[in-house]
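User: Please predict the structure of the protein below. I'd like the answer in structure-token form so I can feed it into my own downstream comparison script.

Assistant: Understood. Taking the following sequence of 434 residues as input:
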Amino acid sequence: MKGNIRKLSAVCLAASMIFVLAACGGKGTGSKLMIQEEVEEKVVNLFGPMEKSNPGAENLSRTAFDITIGMAEEQLGLTVEYRTYTAENYQEKTYDDVALDRVRNSMDDFYLLNPDTIQVLGLEGKLADLSGLNCVDNLREVVKTANVINGKLMAIPQEIVAYGLFVNKDMFDEYHLELPGTPEELMECCRVFKENGIETPIGANRWWLEVFVFAQAYADLYNGGNTEAEIEALNNGESKYSDYMRPAFEYLKEMIDKGYIDAKTAYTYEAIEGEGPDFLAQKTPIVMAYWGAANSETAYGAADFNLQVIGLPSHLGPMAVVPITGYGICAEAEHLEDAMNVMDVILSDEALQKYAETNKVISPSKNVEVECIPALKPLNDLIKENKYVLGANANMKVEQWGNTCLIVRELLNGASVDECMAEFDRLQEESLGK
């Protein structure tokens, strides 16, 4: 996230009074009052990681968002001012740190928020309930499941970010392998690749192996028809997160021990930049990434082989892993009503259709469908069929996305499965004491 922070605009309410004094024929004085009508410019302030793009900008996500913001500005007769985060200005503070501070101090009207931030602010009562927006009736259930806290909808995204396995189908065909859907099938594929000279069958980085364990840990929780009750049992301590996570961590540890994943390099690799070159060079047949990486030529969108994006393995079959971000409104926003109206426009089916067509993404609206590239069809089908696992859930007292990522890193760095499970237990005990 680069660039300078935009100068913040203030709303100026102008009223001028002009007094004209005139003398007439030496007789008394008179006065005439001229009042200029007060003019108010309606402004809604957005805090996010991006500035408003210039016409013709190459960054599609900015362009798509700007299109929908333009619709809101035109329909509502207001201006949305972008207030932006840049690492240069905030130095050691992360985007999440800054967003938390700004929402808690009611510095802006609405925000683009990450999953763990939505959870924290929602529990603190700092975010407005979006349940009354017109667009809510059209949302996919996955969005509501992820972002409802205590019966209130805290945030809504403009797209659903789904993670899956990116596979080189040509390499699977070369060794007569079917694409895997279960942990056992994936393990067998890795064995065949390894025995045929593929040094590291699965390319990994220090950020995204968490989606690998989510798919296995929570397949039953999200697909067994008893989601709310299971989450309630976790929140009150009747069930343990470590019981869900242990089989997934044991499986990941086995993959590492067999050399199917290189833990040392994964611990240092940045997403795509680390494992990406070997995947594109066809030295490794499998990586983990998110939907948009298949559309971007700077990621995996220009592969010289038959790229397929499939679900992550679970005993129920392949699963999409979905961490929901979203736009939330400050509960004490200065322009609360206008911010609500902006959200209703940019999240309308009309706006989401334009957004999805521009970015080629999965829409949060069940009424909006965009034809995806062939490589993404398997993952898209899973979303349509509601075969997913959430990587973030605001209803869970223990934040999932960030905590699981850190604990997986400990495994990569040599921690035992028991030590990793002890950390989940510690986090759960801490949440029960709050």
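That's the full token string. Confidence is low (pLDDT under 50) at residues 1-39.
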